[in-house]
Specification:
By secondary structure, the protein is mainly beta. The chain has helices at residues 2-22, 37-49, 58-62, 83-93, 106-109, 134-144, and strands at residues 158-164, 169-174, 179-185, 190-195, 201-206, 211-216, 222-227, 232-237, 243-248, 254-259, 264-270, 277-280, 286-291, 296-301, 306-312, 317-324, 330-337, 342-347, 352-358, 380-381, 388-393, 398-403, 409-414, 417-418, 426-427, 430-435, 441-446, 451-456, 461-467, 472-479. The longest helix is centred in the N-terminal third of the chain and has 21 residues, at 2-22.
């Protein structure tokens, strides 16, 4: 078996070299681990033997000579490959896997229909009509990396949770490796995601069932479903961890309070309009809700659970971010609005808008084909160090960085482009933003590109692109205090 081990090492090295050569010149390399052999043997190899209606089996073509991806011929009468043959199949498969950009892997794109994002022609036909095909998704999970990694095997102090808004999954990214290490399944149309104070529970608003799903963080299993008064959107947790606050998008709109000890409904706080997003202020004293319909940001005093003031805008309220004073109190709210490629600035003490910042016109050229001109800028955040403001733009297909407190533009980061067959490139449609606790790494969900861009906050360079599920939007960071 010594010669086989050498062959496997050479194949892994070759796959790494090919992926390094293929990556974009402006994206520094990040060396992810090789996909799992055990998962390949158990879940991927059976796909190559599967009879798909109207198609020849993958096996029938790929045992022929001259194939870049070559499968070993089965012994007469055998239904499965031997261990040694599986290792040879595994080594061959690595030649069609892009370790740096898994979504671009030939193994995924070549048998996929062009209209679903695949190559223009595959001599084996369109084996997969859609990326929703369960077998294609199995291949994609393997290419991204083995997701059965045990909970304790990570050096990271934070995980990035991504809700796939057009699927029934959440992807979890280890910030130490920028690899998917867990998938939470069975939550259809997940919206917001938040965490218990000890990090052992994950709270997810479920639009399909109008419930708050309570998930065990370690296993990823749904522990309980808490019935809500209406369809939810985003959620947050009070600073003491005692209450989950759920934005109810169904009219007339409200902030619903769930007690985290009993997982029971406590009360609904009336606000101005259906709630799209809501945030607890950094000092924990208030919750601010935003409504697209009423074009208002409503401030609720959490000591009384009562609305105390609001700011009215000329357009629907989208995501928000906060700046703090030296004493930790809230200084300003940065508010994104429908139709505005930029953000409004609200002085918290004055209780009014004091400025409106428009993002640069260049880069530009995106948004129309994607049907997103109504929400040209969606996604905004301030990292823990409070020194910068990050703003996503669909029109620019980029994320911009501003300094705080002076709001000086420091630069921008280009995001992935989508190249369809015989069409102009379209944008990634960037959405929400989150950060590692040291403020050094920025994560942006790209709803059209089905990916999360990982950005070095200092160099303004993308350092990784993590493939995730369908239409990823809300994204949040779970920080572990002890590992």
């Amino acid at each position: 078996m010594r010669h086989l081990s050498t062959f496997l090492l050479l194949a892994v090295a070759a796959a790494s070299s090919l992926s390094l050569w293929r990556q974009q010149a402006d994206t520094p390399s990040v060396q992810p681990p090789t996909p799992s052999f055990d998962v390949f043997k158990k879940e991927v190899e059976p796909i190559f033997l599967k009879e798909r209606p109207g198609h020849a089996r993958c096996y029938g073509c790929h045992i022929l000579s001259g194939r870049l991806f070559h499968l070993q011929p089965l012994a007469p009468g055998a239904e499965h490959w031997t261990e040694e043959q599986s290792q040879q199949n595994f080594a061959s498969a690595l030649w069609v896997v892009d370790l740096q950009n898994p979504a671009a892997s030939r193994l995924l794109r070549h048998p996929l229909a062009p209209e679903a994002g695949g190559d223009a022609f595959h001599s084996g036909g369109r084996q997969f009509a859609s990326q929703n095909d369960p077998d294609w998704q199995t291949l994609a999970r393997w290419v991204k990396g083995d997701r059965s990694r045990p909970f304790g095997e990570t050096s990271s102090n934070s995980w990035i949770y991504v809700t796939n808004s057009a699927a029934d999954t959440l992807d979890v990214i280890d910030s130490a490796t920028n690899r998917i290490i867990q998938v939470i399944r069975g939550i259809e149309l997940p919206h917001g995601v938040a965490f218990s104070l000890d990090g052992r529970r994950v709270y997810v608003s479920n639009e399909s069932e109008s419930v708050l799903d309570v998930v065990d963080q370690e296993s990823g299993k749904v522990l309980q479903k808490v019935r809500l008064s209406g369809r939810p959107n985003n959620i947050t947790v009070t600073r003491d961890g005692k209450r989950v606050l759920v934005g109810i998008r169904a009219k007339p709109g409200a902030i619903e309070i769930i007690d985290t000890a009993t997982l029971q409904h406590v009360k609904n706080i009336p606000v101005d309009g259906p709630v799209h997003n809501l945030y607890v202020t950094p000092d924990g004293k208030y919750v601010v809700s935003g409504s697209i319909e009423s074009k208002a940001a409503t401030v609720v005093d959490l000591s009384r659970d009562e609305m105390v003031w609001e700011v009215q805008f000329d357009a629907g309220v989208r995501p928000m971010a906060f700046e703090v004073n030296p004493d930790g109190s809230t200084k300003r709210i940065f508010v994104q609005l429908s139709g505005l490629n930029g953000f409004a600035v609200v002085d918290f003490d004055k209780r009014s808008e004091v400025a409106r910042i428009k993002l640069p016109d260049q880069p530009g050229g995106f948004g129309e084909a994607e049907g997103r001109l109504g929400t040209p800028s969606h996604g905004i955040g301030v990292p823990a160090d409070g020194k910068s403001l990050w703003v996503s733009s669909t029109l620019a297909n980029a994320t911009f960085k501003y300094s705080l407190p002076d709001l000086r533009l420091l630069g921008y980061v280009k995001l992935p482009e989508i190249h369809g067959i015989k069409a102009l490139p379209t944008g990634a449609v960037p959405e929400w933003i989150t950060f590692t606790p040291d403020s050094k790494t920025v994560y942006v969900s790209n709803s059209a590109a089905r990916s999360v861009s990982v950005i070095n906050a200092d160099s303004l360079k993308r350092i990784a692109e993590v493939p995730v599920g369908e239409v990823p939007k809300r994204i949040n960071t779970l920080v572990f205090t002890e590992r």
